[in-house]
Amino acid sequence: MSLLDIEDLWVRFPTRQGVFDAVRGVSFSLGRERLGIVGESGSGKSMTGRAILRLIRKPGIVEASHVNLEGRDLLELGEREMRAVRGKQISMVMQDPKFSLNPVVTVGEQLMEAYLQHNSGKKFHARKMAIEMLENVSIRDAERVMRAYPHEVSGGMGQRIMIAMMLIPNPKILIADEPTSALDVSVQRQVLNIMDGLVKERGMGLIFISHDLNLVSEFCDRVLIMYSGRIVEVCEANKLHQAQHPYTQGLLNSLPRLDDKRTHLSVLARDPSWSNAPSVRG
Amino acid sequence: MTALEIRDLDVWFGHAHDRVDAVKGANLSVVQGESFGLVGESGSGKSTILRAITGLAPQWSGTIEVEGQALSGAKRYRAFFRTVQMVFQDPYASLHPRHTVDQVLSETLHLHGLDNIDKRVAGLLDDVGLGQRFRFRYPHQLSGGQRQRVAIARALAGEPDILLLDEPTSALDVSVQAEVLNLLADLRTKHGLTYLMVSHDLPVIAHMCDQLAVMRNGEIVEVMSSETLRMGNPKHEYSQELLRASVAPQ
Known about the structure:
The complex is a heterodimer. By secondary structure, chain A is an alpha/beta fold. Chain A folds into 2 domains: 1-89 and 172-183 and 201-282, 3-Layer(aba) Sandwich (Rossmann fold); 90-170, no CATH class. Chain A has 11 helices and 11 strands. Chain A has helices spanning 45-52, 79-85, 97-100, 107-118, 123-136, 142-147, 155-167, 185-202, 213-219, 246-253, 273-276, and strands spanning 4-15, 18-30, 34-38, 61-63, 66-69, 72-73, 90-93, 173-177, 205-210, 222-227, 230-236. In chain A, helix 5 (123-136) packs across helix 7 and helix 7 packs parallel to helix 8 (185-202). The longest helix of chain A is centred in the last third of the chain and has 18 residues, at 185-202. Chain B has a single domain, classed as P-loop containing nucleotide triphosphate hydrolases (Rossmann fold, 3-Layer(aba) Sandwich). In chain B, strands 6-7-8-3-9-10 form a 6-stranded mixed sheet, with helices on both faces. A 4-stranded antiparallel sheet of chain B has the order 2-1-4-5, covered by helices on one side. Chain A binds chain B through residues 40-41, 155, 184-189, 211, 213-215, 217-218, 241, 250-251, 254-259, 261, 263-268, and chain B through 41-42, 144, 173-179, 181-182, 185, 200, 202-204, 206-208, 229-230, 232, 241-243, 245-250.
């Protein structure tokens, strides 16, 4: 059975020029797998991730026939029940650790809070869990990092701390929104490997949102390609390079490649029919 | 002829025990008309070299020569800015939010002491492929790629010989990146420009540059041709590591 099942999801923002539809009727389901969502900025990929957790702020509107988490419709829950879902059932790792960690609270306290929010328990137990989790994300001197403030750790370490924090309540689904875009290539891979290992080990579902096609094809099982709020193509991640849709092909071709020298990169020619075509089911 | 020559360049920030050495003993030389790339991780000092050249990093020692003229300190004269211009990473931050494209370009042209401003603005917009309808727009009415085009037009206003490009496309989508990189390649051919380009993206550097230097912890560990990089033959261990990290196993 699928963990998460989304049917006809819309995200709308009323503006002075009328209603803007950021996500337009997206349907997909997620099992215990790694699902990638790729697209350019403004394609609605992040909004889809946030809408699942109902993190779209007013005046934004989220509508769907259902967003079922193991059969329970998240859109029908009250705000209080929703708080129990966030973190405990579905967690989210955001792009930049600089903006997602509280700068005036030590790493340790933030990690322990993540545990104590969802589990009643003694503080020393939370502390043990936090240290264990830091070790799981390959942070060697966990004791020292527990005492550190976010500005005292590097970007890569900050992102690993975020992952640790999100995994402490042991959620069923992890939504990672550009988790490595702020990191250097060499650190990127390391962080992804850690995340990948933990997700596999715990049998979680992963939604991996990224603009980087190569990264997604390497780290996911299945990929949804989004364009102007709709899914234009769904494919197996390892077959991404054989993608059929002209948009996906265009994106892949516009990347400079080390093994293919040319004077000009091919430019994506956008076709208005792409945004009018109905959303593909993922 | 050498457009840009850097010898034993040290750049540092702060004083005494707070001192951070951002660049240590860097040597590089860029021939007229060549495109030279600097790659490395964040904090490796690649952007700092550009900032030292333009006078934005005042504490440096060593030699920086632009077209044979040695620079000193942080003060740069008008003639320097007619020769060297910089394009910054984030077009969202490098344009004045309350100035129209026309104001941005006119002011720059005026500061360069040029005449015929109206005609030149029109020419610059055509040069970067924007066209006249963008002339009276504000930055918030432009997309990221269009903003970067305005930033490039501004850099070209004084008809410089050398452009310093600091991650010019890393804030852009790949499709838009392709357009901007094509534009930069065309402009280089058209105006015979010399580029010194910083990026963390090896394929982008290999596409744009003839030569490149790999930096780590403020030091240049290796200078090689793009061809060497494409063939997968960097000598230094660190360059090989970077190359491995940026090539996705197919």
